[in-house]
Amino acid sequence: MAKVLMKGNEAIAVAALKGGVDAFFGYPITPQNEIPEYLSKHLLAAGKVFVQAESEVAAINMVYGAAGAGARVMTSSSSPGIALKQEGISYIAGAELPCVIVSVMRGGPGLGGIQPSQADYYQATRGGGNGDYQLIVYAPETIQETIDIMKESFDIADYYRNPVLVLVDGLIGQMMETVDFEKPVKKRFIPAKDYATTGTANHPGRNIVNSLFLDPVELEQHNLQLQKKYQQIKNNETKYEMINMENPEYVIVAYGTMSRICRSAIESLKEEGIEVGMIRPISLWPYPKAAFNEIPSGVKGILCAEMSMGQMLDDVMISDKGRHEIGFYGRVGGMVPEPEEIVDAIKNFKDKVVK
Amino acid sequence: MMKRLLFLTGYYGSGKTEIALNLAIKEKVDYVVDLDVINPYFRSRESEELLKTNNIDVISSDKEHSKFTDLPYISGRVFLPFQKEDVRAIYDLGGNDLGAKLLRQFEEYENEIDLYLVVNVFRPETQTKEEIISLIKKIQVSSGRDVTGLINNSNLLKETTIQYVYEGELILKEVSNELNLPIVYTCISQRLVGEQHGFEGELLPLQIYLRKKWF
To answer: Which regions of B36-182 does DSSP assign to beta strands (E)?
Structure first.
């Protein structure tokens, strides 16, 4: 296929098919409904599995089951729906099973609204499930990048036997862009799924999929094993982009839609003779802490910009280790800032500093 | 010349709403009727202020917060342009046969209407003559009305060149010949206006209203 014009949600669905998804389980919610709508038609046409479950809780547990049986499996939802899936997500991470979860964020808390938001950073990176688990979280800024990350995410999930969460906001879900589905992505060697519950033909005895370890010695051992894996993910799968970092006066940190607004602001500031750089985290977990060591000397401050009240701000502070003054600018509730607001925030940086 | 009442239909994301806004302002119609019960964002009701300054009334949902919900609810006022015979209106339907279904409620009215199909051949599922004709048939069954014209809106946003518009026209001409439907408008970006060379139908340079410049 040559270049086509695609809506973000449709593109996520097509990229899932390109990534080899075998089964989708989900429950409708705005603003991500085009994902299940598209897959309901095309997965069945390809002889694969699509189930509209009776609830988000059911859907994530179907994902758990199908992943245990060795399938490439995914679900998608939006903020309150992802909240409902947290228990299942912790179980899947605990049982070390792969899956891809797409979260198309809308305004919260509670039912909130259906307009775009980035207020689920904590939900994605800190999680609402129990225990010492981590999701691998990617937050693309364009539809092309979303496609590339979707395709790669199925491999990353299989490779580490861990859920991957692709985090976008409603605007990326609903907007349209020119994309190329055939753009190559990194390939990984995926070992055979000898843990899957597919019968006893290929190994002696039964496989059991489980997150229950009643013996504390065993459970601690299991946790240490998970930590070893998370360290490996930190070493290998951290993604970020540095923009205009030669000699900036200020540095912005922003991801997803917000980073696109900030790119536009950086252009305007450049025209006025103010150089501003940007660290754009693409993986939110693992967070690109090392990027902050590359900030050139002479930078007057870091502005964290989010469509939330300041959630990634924690990771910016942890990563900067007190080296700079840190400011914050955020809009919420479905309000999407204009680039001019970021320009003003940089010009009035002193007023934005977090006390 | 468009009829008193024009309905815009087409594949999801083919550009119906931007075209509805542009045509409404160009043709100085009295009403834009937003019948989109498919999309949660980017609907003509979001441009109420712009249309008001052009003396165009927007009819969509009269429920509170209808700009920020995707409830499948529309106002009873959508019948008004059918009943007031001295007004002109553009109706902006939701995508595909599903969105076109809303035309059924006007069955009892005899008024002649235009139903134009907006096509961007760079959207999936409307890339060939066969796919476009199949969509037209589905829309006609679902809406109970005949498609009366085609609008070529073939583009790849910022990457569009005149060549892409021609590629769209070649495919739409095949549809036009087979179904005996005119290509009524060819849409091009304002930035390509100087370059055009004799497209089918009237040239409609598009001002983009719903897309932010940083997209």
So the answer is: 57-59, 89-93, 114-119, 149-152
Number of domains chain B contains = 1
Q: What are the C-alpha distances in Å from A349 to residues A4, A246, A250, B57?
A: 41, 20, 9, 43
Structural domain boundaries enclosing B113:
5-206
Contact of A231 with A224, CB cutoff 8 Å: no
- Tell me which residue in A31, A174, A260 faces B214 most closely, judged by beta carbons: A260
Looking at the domain assignment, is residue B215 inside a domain?
A: no
Domains recognised in chain A with CATH numbers: 4-237 (3.40.50.970), 240-352 (3.40.50.920)
Query: What does the pLDDT profile of chain A (355 residues) look like in tens digits?
Result: 589 999 999 999 999 999 999 999 999 999 999 999 999 999 999 999 999 999 999 999 999 999 999 999 999 999 999 999 999 999 999 999 999 999 999 999 999 999 999 999 999 999 889 999 999 999 999 999 999 999 999 999 999 999 999 999 999 999 999 999 999 999 999 999 999 999 887 778 889 999 999 999 999 999 999 999 999 999 999 999 999 999 999 999 999 999 999 999 999 999 999 999 999 999 999 999 999 999 999 999 999 999 999 999 999 999 999 999 999 999 999 999 999 999 999 999 999 999 8
Compare CB distances from B40 to A30, A178, A264 and report the shortest one's residue. Answer: A30
**Chain A partners within 8 Å of B12 (Cβ):** 7, 10, 34
| B153 within some domain | yes
The residues in A 276-335 lying below 8 A from B, measured between CB atoms, are 334
- Cα torsion at A13, A115, A118, A83 (round to 10°)? -70
The answer to whether residue B211 is domain-embedded is: no
Q: How far apart are the first and last CA of chain B?
A: 34
